[in-house]
Amino acid sequence: MTIRPVILCGGAGTRLWPVSRQHYPKQLLPIIGEQSLLQQTAARLSGQEFAPSLVVSGEEQRFFIKRQLQDCDAAVEAILLEPAGRNTAAAAALAASWILARGTDELLLLMPSDHVIGDRGAFLDAIQTGVPLAEQGKIVTFGAEPSGPNTQYGYIEAVADRNASTGALPIACFHEKPSAEKAAEYYKKSGHSGSILLRTSDVAFPGAVDAAALYQQSCAKAGIKIEIKREPGDGYWSEVWNKKPFSLSYWGGRPTQDQMYSTAYISSADWNDTRWKRPEFDKMVVAARGELDQEKRKKMYADMGMMMRDQGGLIVPFFNQYIDASGKNVEGWVNNPAQEMCNGYALALCWVAA
Prior knowledge:
Radius of gyration: 24 Å
Distance between the termini: 76 Å
Shape: globular
Low-confidence stretches: none
Order of helices and strands: EHEHEHEHEEHEHEHHHHEHHE
CATH architecture of the largest domain: Alpha-Beta Complex
Number of strands: 10
Number of helices: 12
Structural class: alpha/beta
CATH class of the largest domain: Alpha Beta
Strand content: 5-15%
CATH topology of the largest domain: Spore Coat Polysaccharide Biosynthesis Protein SpsA, Chain A
Helix content: 25-40%
């Protein structure tokens, strides 16, 4: 029986705002690699085992989606437009109705367009494991083993006492994204108690004191008490940041992943302000520098990014956008790929011509 991929490509563009926007959500961005997450998803679903994909989206993104899929030569049967976003169930029903209207009987493989899957072979193996069960009329779900509790993901509870002779387990229950109460339960199990001191300052970044207060309110909903200490600006970068635990700061972008990892995340980095140290991560950074195969190198950096996300100590509540500008009468300006504003030296390097 034919496997018909259904790529779900909606979204409000809020999770990575302002990098992503309502009309240009994260699946349209090249977050990992040169292709967008949508293009990577379409490439993952190519091959003789798959029929051309159906894409379910909203009206706002239709032209961006069509252009990106054309650019990567993706095999697409149709782009189905929802009059309004109603999440996964409605999108699945729309795709199923389209198939039934054609008078065909196909297995539908529903896929979000914003997932990062590094091991395509394992992905295809999982699909083949699920095909016989789907042909029996069962709904097959795919999950990843969790690395810890997280309020942003739902959890699949399997029937643990059943034999997985088919390679799959029956589902006992699906747990929706944990509530603040559940997050509090996880926090209690972690062994922490009392309040946590968060240091901030007006010089940490614009709005840092207000950001600390918002973070405090968010943690309070999970029963986590945050105590805010407003440090003086004088000496904050020399006496607080990177010396005392849990403080607010900001990072400017770096032109390459290696430079960012080497500056702040390898165990020996002077600016490793989270004190996250993983020997295996250090080895991967060094190995990626000498890897000439671009595809292998991309995967290595993707694996490092996932390791940082799941194990690292950095909390990123938002992303800032900066605009650098220089007028015709400004002399001495040098475009520096290391960082904005001439790598931070614009005020020392530039002058206004008479």
